[in-house]
Description:
This protein is an alpha/beta fold. The protein folds into three domains: 3-93, Udp-n-acetylmuramoylalanyl-d-glutamate--2,6- Diaminopimelate Ligase, Chain: A, domain 1 (3-Layer(aba) Sandwich), CATH 3.40.1390; 102-315, UDP N-Acetylglucosamine Acyltransferase, domain 1 (3 Solenoid); 324-362. Helix content is 17%, strand content 28%. The chain is built from five helices and 40 strands. The strands form seven sheets. The protein has a ten-stranded parallel sheet, with no helix packed on it.
Amino acid sequence: MSFTLKYLAEKINARxxxxxxxxxxxxxxxDDASSHDITFASDIxxxxxxxxxxxxxxxxxxxxxxxxxxxxxxxxxxxxxxxLHFFRIVSLFxxxxxxxxxxxxxxxxxxxxxxGTNVTVHSGVTIGDNVVMGDxxxxxxxxYVGDHVTIGDDTIIKPNVSIMERSVIGKRVIIHSNTVIGxxxxxxxxxNEKHEKIxxxxxxxxxxxxxxxxxxxxxxxxxxxxxxxxxxKTDNLVHIAHNVIIGCNTLIVAQVxxxxxxxxxxxxxxxxxxxVSGHLTIGDYSIVGPKAGVAENVPAGKIVSGxxxxxxxxxxxxxxxxxxxxxxxxxxxxxxxxVKDCEQSVKNDHGKPFDGKGTSKK
Length: 362
């Protein structure tokens, strides 16, 4: 498969500097690209080395500073968003395989199943009673869909996903393998020396254009809903507890845990292995750093890091001090000994105790 630069430029609305009839046969990373590949350079560390690349063509920003494109050996495509447009070109070289619509005869389907057009239900799928699915939904092998679940158009459920009863899944959602949607939350109440399970009567709502990574666990509400809003993207191994609300377009990276009833704002980033305590609010456009332990509310637009979570700039100072603590301890002990020696010396000289102010007590 090959495309001319003119064709690719039209697809991403880019301007060409170089041979528009040149053909490229593939896509590659900047350092690995050959003369038959197209790649991209969106930041300064790559733009400075454009003359070193072997790529046949490079997508670069329209505002590329004082870069002399005329001296380059490769062709250049000027783009408003090089990374985004590069991966749109990647999809041309590697188009998604179209799923052939069918319902496997060995799939187990309950009563009152309502299905849209062109759905795909593979073998090993179990669908409960009163399930409603939209058009072009694909359920891959081993998927379990509980009673009273609703799934919107163009949603893809990967192998071995469990969607428990009353869950609501929006349009164009992707849920990756081995994820569980709508499991009971971690709720128990003391009964003398035992812990009695609290029933969870709520549900999970996942809005349009959400992508849930592999091995996520998203608990149903104790009452009401756990709500993942439009455009949220979660990485693998994420846990979201009961009644949590995740705002639109928020990114949650691997191994994050969010405790019950916390509210995460819009366009938040929660980095890998961070933990958020229950009943907290994380404001819009804030960032929680990797391995941070968030124990109090985070205002909108703030960056927090560390354990416990604190303003990021303060955490950088703390992190810089930590490796120096052994030496600082030695210096502190040395100063304590010197102070004691000085006190003893003054006492010996005057025969009276030292008051710490440079004079002996009278």
